[in-house]
Amino acid sequence: MSPAATATATDPAVRALCAADPELARVAAGIIDLPARDRPAGFRGLASIMVQQQVSLASAAAIWGRLEARLGAVTADRLTAQSDEVLLGCGLSRPKLRYLRAAAEAVADGSLDLQALPGLPVAAAREAMTAVTGIGRWTADIYLLSALGHPDIWPAHDLALQVALQAAKGLPDRPAPKATDAIAEAWAPHRSTAARLLWAHYRVIKGRDAV
Questions:
Q1: What's phi and psi for 32, nearest 5 deg?
Q2: Is the pLDDT score of 5 beyond 50?
Q3: pTM value?
Q4: Structural domains for the chain
């Protein structure tokens, strides 16, 4: 991932969000830099996000390191060519292996055209991605935000964002995805920046470095 890229005080999207939402303004006041969280576009970026699904960051990093050591470049063709035993030996669960194979096959046969996604509306891009087994809205949103750099993506199913939003808004319970979607509507067209602010806020409230 890229290092922190943008100072919050000078970022136009952050300034717009702060003007629109006093709770986000308070969050931004505690963040020194806005983390970029960039990933490469293409199958490698998509696969890295899928590996991260429902596991800790440390576990995902370990699995990804073993995959890269085994495959060299993590491409759809190279992943498809490996046996189940080899890939399971890298630490993938059987469901995760099945999902990665489905994504690799969809990319290889053109049913998922990753190169076409930047030219599609968000809803159409999400639909194209979630049509593939194992790619849900969280994976699609993280790819659109971090690999394609779309400025207005809100990953409503992200647990850290739900926790950070609960803290920022003083909510009694962690909000469900539908509720966070409703809150985030007011942040358009800068929802990706709002997500980055709240990811940084999550690290603050958990006692970690904000970057």
A1: -80, -45
A2: no
A3: 0.90
A4: 6-37+153-205 (1.10.1670.40), 43-147 (1.10.340.30)
